[in-house]
Design brief:
- With 447 residues, this protein is of the alpha/beta class.
- The chain has three domains: 201 residues, FAD/NAD(P)-binding domain; 122 residues, no CATH class; 102 residues, Polyamine Oxidase, Chain A, domain 2 (Alpha-Beta Complex), CATH 3.90.660.10.
- The protein is built from 14 helices and 19 strands.
- Strands 1, 2, 10, 11, 12, 13 and 19 form a seven-stranded mixed beta sheet that branches. A seven-stranded mixed beta sheet has the order 8-7-15-16-17-14-18, sandwiched between helices. Strands 5-9-6 form a three-stranded antiparallel beta sheet, with no helix packed on it.
- Helix 2 packs across helix 14.
- Bound molecules: flavin-adenine dinucleotide.
- Flavin-adenine dinucleotide binds next to helix 1, strand 14, strand 18 and helix 14.
Length: 447
Protein backbone atom coordinates (compact mmCIF):
# COMPACT_ATOMS: atom_id res chain seq x y z
CA UNK A 1 0.00 0.00 0.00
CA UNK A 2 1.58 3.28 -1.15
CA UNK A 3 0.67 6.76 0.10
CA UNK A 4 0.53 8.05 -3.48
CA UNK A 5 0.56 6.47 -6.93
CA UNK A 6 1.57 8.88 -9.68
CA UNK A 7 0.52 7.89 -13.18
CA UNK A 8 3.07 9.25 -15.66
CA UNK A 9 6.68 10.33 -15.20
CA UNK A 10 6.71 13.58 -17.18
CA UNK A 11 7.58 16.89 -15.52
CA UNK A 12 4.27 17.21 -13.67
CA UNK A 13 4.62 13.67 -12.27
CA UNK A 14 8.23 14.26 -11.28
CA UNK A 15 7.39 17.61 -9.67
CA UNK A 16 4.60 16.02 -7.62
CA UNK A 17 6.83 13.09 -6.66
CA UNK A 18 9.71 15.36 -5.60
CA UNK A 19 7.45 17.50 -3.38
CA UNK A 20 5.71 14.48 -1.83
CA UNK A 21 8.96 12.58 -1.28
CA UNK A 22 10.45 15.58 0.51
CA UNK A 23 7.32 15.69 2.69
CA UNK A 24 7.93 12.05 3.70
CA UNK A 25 5.26 10.35 1.57
CA UNK A 26 5.73 6.84 0.24
CA UNK A 27 5.45 7.49 -3.52
CA UNK A 28 5.44 5.31 -6.64
CA UNK A 29 5.53 6.44 -10.30
CA UNK A 30 4.25 4.22 -13.10
CA UNK A 31 5.49 5.33 -16.51
CA UNK A 32 4.48 3.51 -19.67
CA UNK A 33 7.54 4.60 -21.68
CA UNK A 34 11.03 3.13 -21.26
CA UNK A 35 12.21 6.53 -19.91
CA UNK A 36 11.07 9.37 -17.69
CA UNK A 37 10.53 12.96 -18.90
CA UNK A 38 7.40 12.53 -21.02
CA UNK A 39 7.29 15.25 -23.66
CA UNK A 40 10.57 16.67 -22.45
CA UNK A 41 13.54 14.33 -22.85
CA UNK A 42 16.91 13.99 -24.54
CA UNK A 43 19.12 11.22 -25.84
CA UNK A 44 22.57 10.80 -27.34
CA UNK A 45 22.60 10.69 -31.13
CA UNK A 46 24.63 7.63 -32.13
CA UNK A 47 26.09 9.13 -35.32
CA UNK A 48 27.45 12.35 -33.82
CA UNK A 49 27.55 11.70 -30.07
CA UNK A 50 25.65 14.96 -29.51
CA UNK A 51 22.76 15.37 -27.08
CA UNK A 52 19.48 15.73 -28.97
CA UNK A 53 16.35 17.07 -27.26
CA UNK A 54 12.93 15.92 -28.43
CA UNK A 55 12.36 19.66 -28.99
CA UNK A 56 14.35 22.76 -28.04
CA UNK A 57 12.75 24.15 -24.87
CA UNK A 58 13.08 27.81 -23.98
CA UNK A 59 12.33 28.98 -20.45
CA UNK A 60 11.68 32.40 -18.97
CA UNK A 61 12.77 34.04 -15.74
CA UNK A 62 9.03 34.16 -14.97
CA UNK A 63 8.98 30.34 -14.64
CA UNK A 64 9.29 30.60 -10.84
CA UNK A 65 7.90 27.14 -10.08
CA UNK A 66 10.14 25.42 -12.58
CA UNK A 67 13.16 27.26 -11.15
CA UNK A 68 12.13 26.14 -7.65
CA UNK A 69 11.92 22.54 -8.94
CA UNK A 70 15.41 22.84 -10.44
CA UNK A 71 16.66 24.22 -7.10
CA UNK A 72 15.16 21.23 -5.29
CA UNK A 73 16.91 18.75 -7.60
CA UNK A 74 20.06 20.88 -7.88
CA UNK A 75 20.34 21.53 -11.64
CA UNK A 76 19.47 25.21 -11.98
CA UNK A 77 23.10 26.06 -12.67
CA UNK A 78 22.77 24.38 -16.07
CA UNK A 79 20.58 27.16 -17.43
CA UNK A 80 22.24 29.85 -19.52
CA UNK A 81 20.88 33.07 -18.16
CA UNK A 82 20.74 35.89 -20.69
CA UNK A 83 21.01 39.06 -18.55
CA UNK A 84 18.20 40.68 -20.54
CA UNK A 85 15.79 39.54 -23.18
CA UNK A 86 17.25 39.98 -26.65
CA UNK A 87 15.74 38.41 -29.74
CA UNK A 88 17.12 38.76 -33.25
CA UNK A 89 14.67 38.35 -36.12
CA UNK A 90 15.40 37.90 -39.80
CA UNK A 91 13.06 39.48 -42.34
CA UNK A 92 13.21 38.18 -45.96
CA UNK A 93 13.51 41.70 -47.48
CA UNK A 94 14.67 43.93 -44.64
CA UNK A 95 17.29 41.71 -43.04
CA UNK A 96 17.87 41.60 -39.31
CA UNK A 97 16.24 43.48 -36.44
CA UNK A 98 16.71 43.09 -32.71
CA UNK A 99 14.02 43.31 -30.08
CA UNK A 100 15.90 43.97 -26.89
CA UNK A 101 14.82 44.95 -23.43
CA UNK A 102 16.92 47.96 -22.41
CA UNK A 103 18.70 48.36 -19.09
CA UNK A 104 16.41 51.25 -18.11
CA UNK A 105 14.18 50.75 -15.05
CA UNK A 106 10.77 49.11 -15.46
CA UNK A 107 8.48 49.87 -17.37
CA UNK A 108 10.80 52.02 -19.51
CA UNK A 109 12.88 48.92 -20.29
CA UNK A 110 10.02 47.57 -22.40
CA UNK A 111 9.07 50.93 -23.91
CA UNK A 112 12.63 51.57 -25.06
CA UNK A 113 12.86 48.04 -26.47
CA UNK A 114 9.73 48.60 -28.53
CA UNK A 115 10.79 52.02 -29.78
CA UNK A 116 14.13 50.67 -30.99
CA UNK A 117 12.80 47.71 -32.98
CA UNK A 118 14.12 48.59 -36.42
CA UNK A 119 12.06 46.16 -38.51
CA UNK A 120 9.05 48.46 -38.05
CA UNK A 121 8.38 52.08 -39.00
CA UNK A 122 8.50 54.58 -36.14
CA UNK A 123 4.70 54.88 -36.18
CA UNK A 124 4.36 51.10 -35.90
CA UNK A 125 6.84 51.03 -33.03
CA UNK A 126 4.86 53.71 -31.18
CA UNK A 127 1.76 51.58 -31.60
CA UNK A 128 3.52 48.61 -29.97
CA UNK A 129 3.24 50.61 -26.75
CA UNK A 130 -0.55 50.14 -26.87
CA UNK A 131 -0.03 46.49 -25.99
CA UNK A 132 2.06 47.43 -22.95
CA UNK A 133 -0.56 49.97 -21.86
CA UNK A 134 -3.34 47.40 -22.19
CA UNK A 135 -1.44 44.88 -20.06
CA UNK A 136 -0.76 47.57 -17.47
CA UNK A 137 -4.46 48.15 -16.84
CA UNK A 138 -5.15 44.45 -16.14
CA UNK A 139 -8.51 43.89 -14.44
CA UNK A 140 -11.54 41.58 -14.53
CA UNK A 141 -13.13 43.44 -17.45
CA UNK A 142 -10.01 43.02 -19.55
CA UNK A 143 -9.83 39.29 -18.69
CA UNK A 144 -13.47 38.91 -19.71
CA UNK A 145 -12.85 40.68 -23.02
CA UNK A 146 -9.71 38.65 -23.77
CA UNK A 147 -11.49 35.38 -23.01
CA UNK A 148 -13.47 35.67 -26.24
CA UNK A 149 -10.72 36.96 -28.55
CA UNK A 150 -8.02 35.25 -30.58
CA UNK A 151 -4.52 36.73 -30.51
CA UNK A 152 -5.04 38.05 -34.02
CA UNK A 153 -8.33 39.76 -33.10
CA UNK A 154 -6.82 41.27 -29.96
CA UNK A 155 -3.78 42.68 -31.74
CA UNK A 156 -5.88 44.12 -34.57
CA UNK A 157 -8.08 45.85 -31.96
CA UNK A 158 -4.90 47.32 -30.50
CA UNK A 159 -4.05 48.72 -33.94
CA UNK A 160 -1.02 46.51 -34.46
CA UNK A 161 -0.22 46.66 -38.19
CA UNK A 162 0.16 43.51 -40.27
CA UNK A 163 3.91 44.07 -40.29
CA UNK A 164 4.04 44.49 -36.48
CA UNK A 165 2.10 41.28 -36.02
CA UNK A 166 4.23 39.39 -38.52
CA UNK A 167 7.62 40.72 -37.41
CA UNK A 168 7.23 40.69 -33.63
CA UNK A 169 4.02 39.41 -32.07
CA UNK A 170 3.38 36.27 -34.10
CA UNK A 171 6.88 34.77 -33.85
CA UNK A 172 6.64 35.17 -30.06
CA UNK A 173 3.01 34.04 -29.88
CA UNK A 174 3.32 30.90 -32.01
CA UNK A 175 6.27 29.60 -30.01
CA UNK A 176 4.80 30.55 -26.62
CA UNK A 177 1.37 29.11 -27.38
CA UNK A 178 2.08 26.38 -29.96
CA UNK A 179 -0.97 27.57 -31.84
CA UNK A 180 -1.65 29.83 -34.82
CA UNK A 181 -2.62 33.45 -33.88
CA UNK A 182 -5.98 33.14 -35.68
CA UNK A 183 -6.97 30.41 -33.22
CA UNK A 184 -4.85 30.97 -30.09
CA UNK A 185 -6.37 32.47 -26.95
CA UNK A 186 -5.67 36.17 -26.42
CA UNK A 187 -6.14 35.71 -22.68
CA UNK A 188 -3.40 33.09 -22.34
CA UNK A 189 -1.03 35.09 -24.51
CA UNK A 190 -1.70 38.34 -22.67
CA UNK A 191 -1.13 36.56 -19.34
CA UNK A 192 2.20 35.19 -20.61
CA UNK A 193 3.29 38.66 -21.77
CA UNK A 194 2.23 40.18 -18.46
CA UNK A 195 4.15 37.55 -16.48
CA UNK A 196 7.27 38.12 -18.59
CA UNK A 197 7.27 41.91 -18.91
CA UNK A 198 5.32 43.42 -16.04
CA UNK A 199 6.77 41.43 -13.16
CA UNK A 200 10.35 41.68 -11.91
CA UNK A 201 12.86 42.68 -14.57
CA UNK A 202 14.51 39.28 -14.32
CA UNK A 203 11.20 37.62 -15.28
CA UNK A 204 11.72 38.57 -18.92
CA UNK A 205 15.13 36.86 -19.09
CA UNK A 206 15.37 33.98 -21.53
CA UNK A 207 16.87 30.89 -19.93
CA UNK A 208 18.27 28.21 -22.21
CA UNK A 209 19.33 24.74 -21.04
CA UNK A 210 23.02 23.98 -21.60
CA UNK A 211 22.63 20.24 -21.04
CA UNK A 212 20.19 17.67 -22.37
CA UNK A 213 16.65 17.83 -21.05
CA UNK A 214 16.83 14.44 -19.34
CA UNK A 215 19.95 15.55 -17.45
CA UNK A 216 18.35 18.87 -16.54
CA UNK A 217 14.91 17.71 -15.41
CA UNK A 218 14.94 13.97 -14.87
CA UNK A 219 18.05 12.19 -13.56
CA UNK A 220 18.53 14.22 -10.36
CA UNK A 221 14.79 14.12 -9.64
CA UNK A 222 14.88 10.34 -9.97
CA UNK A 223 17.82 10.17 -7.52
CA UNK A 224 16.00 12.40 -5.02
CA UNK A 225 12.79 10.35 -5.19
CA UNK A 226 14.65 7.04 -4.80
CA UNK A 227 16.76 8.43 -1.95
CA UNK A 228 13.48 9.09 -0.13
CA UNK A 229 12.43 5.46 -0.74
CA UNK A 230 10.12 6.32 -3.66
CA UNK A 231 9.75 3.73 -6.40
CA UNK A 232 9.81 4.33 -10.16
CA UNK A 233 8.66 1.71 -12.66
CA UNK A 234 9.28 2.21 -16.38
CA UNK A 235 7.53 0.27 -19.17
CA UNK A 236 4.59 0.11 -16.75
CA UNK A 237 1.31 1.21 -18.24
CA UNK A 238 -1.66 1.88 -15.98
CA UNK A 239 -4.68 0.35 -17.69
CA UNK A 240 -7.54 1.34 -15.39
CA UNK A 241 -8.47 2.94 -12.10
CA UNK A 242 -9.92 0.79 -9.35
CA UNK A 243 -12.77 2.84 -7.91
CA UNK A 244 -15.27 1.74 -5.23
CA UNK A 245 -18.09 4.05 -4.14
CA UNK A 246 -16.40 7.13 -5.56
CA UNK A 247 -13.16 6.38 -3.75
CA UNK A 248 -10.03 5.25 -5.51
CA UNK A 249 -8.35 2.23 -4.01
CA UNK A 250 -5.59 1.85 -6.59
CA UNK A 251 -4.72 1.24 -10.23
CA UNK A 252 -4.58 -1.83 -12.42
CA UNK A 253 -1.46 -2.22 -14.53
CA UNK A 254 -1.36 -3.71 -18.03
CA UNK A 255 0.01 -6.96 -16.56
CA UNK A 256 -3.18 -7.22 -14.51
CA UNK A 257 -1.67 -6.36 -11.13
CA UNK A 258 -3.73 -4.23 -8.77
CA UNK A 259 -1.55 -1.71 -6.94
CA UNK A 260 -3.17 -0.11 -3.91
CA UNK A 261 -2.65 3.42 -2.62
CA UNK A 262 -4.29 5.99 -0.38
CA UNK A 263 -4.16 8.59 -3.17
CA UNK A 264 -3.65 8.61 -6.92
CA UNK A 265 -2.46 11.51 -9.09
CA UNK A 266 -2.90 11.22 -12.84
CA UNK A 267 -0.53 13.37 -14.92
CA UNK A 268 -1.33 11.89 -18.32
CA UNK A 269 -2.86 13.75 -21.28
CA UNK A 270 -6.67 13.81 -21.73
CA UNK A 271 -6.77 11.27 -24.61
CA UNK A 272 -4.85 8.78 -22.43
CA UNK A 273 -6.75 9.53 -19.22
CA UNK A 274 -10.17 8.95 -20.74
CA UNK A 275 -9.25 5.28 -21.34
CA UNK A 276 -8.64 4.71 -17.61
CA UNK A 277 -11.92 6.12 -16.30
CA UNK A 278 -14.52 3.50 -15.29
CA UNK A 279 -17.61 3.63 -17.54
CA UNK A 280 -20.17 4.95 -15.05
CA UNK A 281 -17.92 7.91 -14.22
CA UNK A 282 -17.27 8.83 -17.87
CA UNK A 283 -20.46 10.93 -17.89
CA UNK A 284 -19.31 13.13 -15.00
CA UNK A 285 -17.28 16.30 -15.42
CA UNK A 286 -14.39 16.71 -15.93
CA UNK A 287 -14.14 13.18 -17.36
CA UNK A 288 -16.97 13.78 -19.87
CA UNK A 289 -14.88 16.58 -21.44
CA UNK A 290 -11.65 14.65 -21.95
CA UNK A 291 -12.30 13.66 -25.56
CA UNK A 292 -12.98 17.29 -26.54
CA UNK A 293 -9.36 18.43 -26.12
CA UNK A 294 -7.53 19.17 -29.36
CA UNK A 295 -3.77 19.07 -29.71
CA UNK A 296 -1.15 20.87 -31.76
CA UNK A 297 2.10 19.48 -33.27
CA UNK A 298 5.73 20.65 -33.12
CA UNK A 299 8.41 19.60 -35.61
CA UNK A 300 12.10 19.83 -34.71
CA UNK A 301 14.74 19.57 -37.41
CA UNK A 302 18.25 18.81 -36.13
CA UNK A 303 21.00 19.38 -38.68
CA UNK A 304 24.77 18.90 -38.59
CA UNK A 305 27.06 20.70 -41.06
CA UNK A 306 30.81 20.57 -41.62
CA UNK A 307 31.18 24.33 -40.95
CA UNK A 308 29.85 26.82 -38.44
CA UNK A 309 27.84 29.66 -40.03
CA UNK A 310 25.48 30.93 -37.32
CA UNK A 311 26.82 34.08 -35.66
CA UNK A 312 23.99 34.24 -33.08
CA UNK A 313 22.76 31.82 -30.41
CA UNK A 314 19.26 31.79 -31.86
CA UNK A 315 17.21 33.68 -34.40
CA UNK A 316 13.52 34.12 -35.22
CA UNK A 317 12.58 33.81 -38.91
CA UNK A 318 9.79 35.96 -40.31
CA UNK A 319 7.52 34.68 -43.10
CA UNK A 320 9.25 31.34 -43.51
CA UNK A 321 8.56 27.70 -42.75
CA UNK A 322 11.15 27.55 -39.98
CA UNK A 323 10.25 29.76 -37.03
CA UNK A 324 13.33 29.66 -34.81
CA UNK A 325 16.83 28.30 -35.32
CA UNK A 326 19.03 27.51 -32.31
CA UNK A 327 22.78 27.11 -32.47
CA UNK A 328 23.07 24.01 -30.30
CA UNK A 329 26.85 23.94 -30.66
CA UNK A 330 27.08 27.37 -29.04
CA UNK A 331 24.34 26.96 -26.46
CA UNK A 332 25.24 23.59 -25.06
CA UNK A 333 27.75 23.05 -22.29
CA UNK A 334 31.12 21.84 -23.66
CA UNK A 335 30.85 18.59 -21.72
CA UNK A 336 27.59 17.76 -23.49
CA UNK A 337 29.24 17.95 -26.89
CA UNK A 338 31.34 15.50 -28.78
CA UNK A 339 31.48 16.57 -32.42
CA UNK A 340 32.87 20.03 -31.66
CA UNK A 341 34.35 20.58 -35.11
CA UNK A 342 30.97 20.56 -36.82
CA UNK A 343 28.02 22.89 -36.65
CA UNK A 344 24.89 21.54 -34.96
CA UNK A 345 21.63 23.47 -35.17
CA UNK A 346 17.97 22.83 -34.34
CA UNK A 347 15.15 24.45 -36.26
CA UNK A 348 11.71 24.54 -34.68
CA UNK A 349 8.25 24.72 -36.24
CA UNK A 350 5.44 25.11 -33.69
CA UNK A 351 1.75 24.67 -34.57
CA UNK A 352 3.15 22.69 -37.50
CA UNK A 353 -0.24 21.52 -38.83
CA UNK A 354 0.73 22.07 -42.46
CA UNK A 355 4.15 20.43 -42.31
CA UNK A 356 3.95 17.65 -39.75
CA UNK A 357 3.00 14.97 -42.28
CA UNK A 358 5.66 15.83 -44.86
CA UNK A 359 8.36 13.21 -45.41
CA UNK A 360 11.83 13.80 -43.96
CA UNK A 361 13.45 14.69 -47.33
CA UNK A 362 10.89 17.42 -48.03
CA UNK A 363 11.28 18.90 -44.57
CA UNK A 364 15.04 19.02 -45.00
CA UNK A 365 14.71 20.72 -48.40
CA UNK A 366 12.39 23.35 -46.90
CA UNK A 367 14.72 23.84 -43.94
CA UNK A 368 17.83 24.22 -46.10
CA UNK A 369 16.16 26.87 -48.23
CA UNK A 370 15.29 28.95 -45.16
CA UNK A 371 18.74 28.45 -43.65
CA UNK A 372 20.53 29.42 -46.89
CA UNK A 373 18.40 32.58 -47.24
CA UNK A 374 18.98 33.58 -43.63
CA UNK A 375 22.67 32.70 -43.43
CA UNK A 376 24.18 32.97 -46.96
CA UNK A 377 27.46 31.50 -45.59
CA UNK A 378 25.62 28.24 -44.96
CA UNK A 379 25.55 27.57 -48.72
CA UNK A 380 29.23 26.67 -48.43
CA UNK A 381 28.57 24.19 -45.59
CA UNK A 382 27.91 20.53 -46.29
CA UNK A 383 25.03 18.80 -44.54
CA UNK A 384 26.46 15.80 -42.68
CA UNK A 385 23.57 14.38 -40.72
CA UNK A 386 19.95 15.07 -39.83
CA UNK A 387 17.37 13.99 -37.24
CA UNK A 388 13.74 15.04 -37.44
CA UNK A 389 11.47 14.69 -34.43
CA UNK A 390 7.73 15.10 -34.90
CA UNK A 391 5.72 15.51 -31.71
CA UNK A 392 2.22 15.20 -33.10
CA UNK A 393 0.58 15.85 -29.74
CA UNK A 394 3.16 18.31 -28.48
CA UNK A 395 0.62 20.28 -26.42
CA UNK A 396 -3.10 20.85 -26.16
CA UNK A 397 -4.32 23.50 -28.54
CA UNK A 398 -4.32 26.85 -26.71
CA UNK A 399 -7.70 28.09 -27.94
CA UNK A 400 -10.47 29.82 -25.95
CA UNK A 401 -12.67 26.74 -26.46
CA UNK A 402 -10.08 24.37 -24.99
CA UNK A 403 -9.42 26.84 -22.19
CA UNK A 404 -13.02 26.30 -21.00
CA UNK A 405 -12.38 22.56 -20.69
CA UNK A 406 -9.24 22.57 -18.54
CA UNK A 407 -10.01 20.97 -15.16
CA UNK A 408 -8.77 21.78 -11.66
CA UNK A 409 -6.87 19.09 -9.70
CA UNK A 410 -9.85 17.83 -7.65
CA UNK A 411 -12.21 15.25 -9.24
CA UNK A 412 -15.53 13.58 -8.35
CA UNK A 413 -13.46 10.60 -7.20
CA UNK A 414 -12.29 11.14 -3.67
CA UNK A 415 -8.48 11.00 -3.32
CA UNK A 416 -7.95 11.06 -7.12
CA UNK A 417 -6.26 14.21 -8.47
CA UNK A 418 -5.35 15.55 -11.89
CA UNK A 419 -2.12 17.21 -12.94
CA UNK A 420 -0.40 17.89 -16.27
CA UNK A 421 0.29 20.96 -18.39
CA UNK A 422 -3.22 20.60 -19.88
CA UNK A 423 -5.03 21.13 -16.57
CA UNK A 424 -6.19 24.56 -15.49
CA UNK A 425 -2.92 26.29 -14.64
CA UNK A 426 -3.84 29.68 -16.13
CA UNK A 427 -0.87 29.34 -18.51
CA UNK A 428 -0.41 27.87 -21.97
CA UNK A 429 0.79 24.24 -21.88
CA UNK A 430 4.38 24.77 -20.75
CA UNK A 431 6.85 23.15 -18.39
CA UNK A 432 6.07 25.91 -15.89
CA UNK A 433 2.41 24.86 -16.10
CA UNK A 434 3.35 21.18 -15.76
CA UNK A 435 5.38 21.86 -12.60
CA UNK A 436 2.67 24.13 -11.13
CA UNK A 437 0.09 21.37 -11.67
CA UNK A 438 2.33 18.73 -10.06
CA UNK A 439 2.97 20.95 -7.04
CA UNK A 440 -0.77 21.73 -6.72
CA UNK A 441 -1.76 18.05 -6.83
CA UNK A 442 0.91 17.27 -4.22
CA UNK A 443 -0.52 20.03 -1.98
CA UNK A 444 -4.01 18.55 -2.33
CA UNK A 445 -2.75 15.11 -1.32
CA UNK A 446 -0.92 16.61 1.67
CA UNK A 447 -3.95 18.53 2.85
C1 LIG B 1 8.68 19.60 -29.04
C2 LIG B 1 8.21 20.31 -27.79
C3 LIG B 1 8.71 21.57 -27.50
C4 LIG B 1 8.29 22.23 -26.34
N1 LIG B 1 8.82 23.45 -26.04
C5 LIG B 1 8.52 24.03 -24.87
C6 LIG B 1 9.18 25.23 -24.47
O1 LIG B 1 10.02 25.78 -25.18
N2 LIG B 1 8.85 25.78 -23.25
C7 LIG B 1 7.93 25.19 -22.43
O2 LIG B 1 7.71 25.70 -21.35
N3 LIG B 1 7.29 24.06 -22.79
C8 LIG B 1 7.56 23.46 -23.98
N4 LIG B 1 6.94 22.29 -24.34
C9 LIG B 1 5.89 21.76 -23.47
C10 LIG B 1 6.43 20.89 -22.33
O3 LIG B 1 7.34 19.94 -22.81
C11 LIG B 1 5.26 20.19 -21.68
O4 LIG B 1 4.40 21.19 -21.19
C12 LIG B 1 5.63 19.29 -20.50
O5 LIG B 1 6.70 18.45 -20.81
C13 LIG B 1 4.40 18.46 -20.11
O6 LIG B 1 4.66 17.64 -18.99
P1 LIG B 1 3.52 16.77 -18.36
O7 LIG B 1 4.11 16.05 -17.20
O8 LIG B 1 2.32 17.61 -18.11
O9 LIG B 1 3.04 15.71 -19.46
P2 LIG B 1 3.85 14.54 -20.17
O10 LIG B 1 5.24 14.97 -20.40
O11 LIG B 1 3.03 14.14 -21.35
O12 LIG B 1 3.86 13.36 -19.10
C14 LIG B 1 2.88 12.36 -19.02
C15 LIG B 1 3.56 11.00 -18.94
O13 LIG B 1 2.56 10.00 -18.75
C16 LIG B 1 2.93 8.84 -19.45
N5 LIG B 1 1.71 8.02 -19.63
C17 LIG B 1 0.67 8.25 -20.48
N6 LIG B 1 -0.27 7.31 -20.31
C18 LIG B 1 0.16 6.47 -19.33
C19 LIG B 1 -0.40 5.33 -18.69
N7 LIG B 1 -1.58 4.84 -19.02
N8 LIG B 1 0.34 4.70 -17.71
C20 LIG B 1 1.57 5.18 -17.35
N9 LIG B 1 2.13 6.28 -17.92
C21 LIG B 1 1.43 6.93 -18.88
C22 LIG B 1 3.53 9.38 -20.74
O14 LIG B 1 4.35 8.42 -21.35
C23 LIG B 1 4.30 10.60 -20.22
O15 LIG B 1 5.63 10.27 -19.88
C24 LIG B 1 7.32 21.63 -25.49
C25 LIG B 1 6.81 20.37 -25.81
C26 LIG B 1 7.25 19.71 -26.94
C27 LIG B 1 6.69 18.33 -27.24
Amino acid sequence: MFDVIIIGGGLSGLAAAVKLSLAGANVVIYEQAPRLGGRCYSYIDETTGDVVDNGQHVLLGAYHNLLHYLDLIGTRRFLKNEPKLSMTFHHPENGRGKFEISSLPKPLHLTAGMLRFKLLSFKERQRLLKVGLELNKWNDDLEKKLRSLSIEQWLIRLKQSEEARKCLWYPIAVSAMNEIPEKASALLFARSLKAAFLGKKSDSAILIPTIGQSELYVYEAQKLIEKHHGKIYLNSEVESLEVKENKIIGVILKDGNLIRAKNVISTIMPHALTKLIPNPLKKEQPFSLLDKFETSPIVSINLWFDKEFMDVDYIGLIDRNLQWIFNRRKLMNESALVGKSTSYITAVISAAYKLVNLPKEELITLALKDIHDTFPESRKAKLLHSVIIKEKRATISATNEVEQLRPSPGTPIENFYLAGDWTNTGLPATIEGAVISGFKAAEMVKS
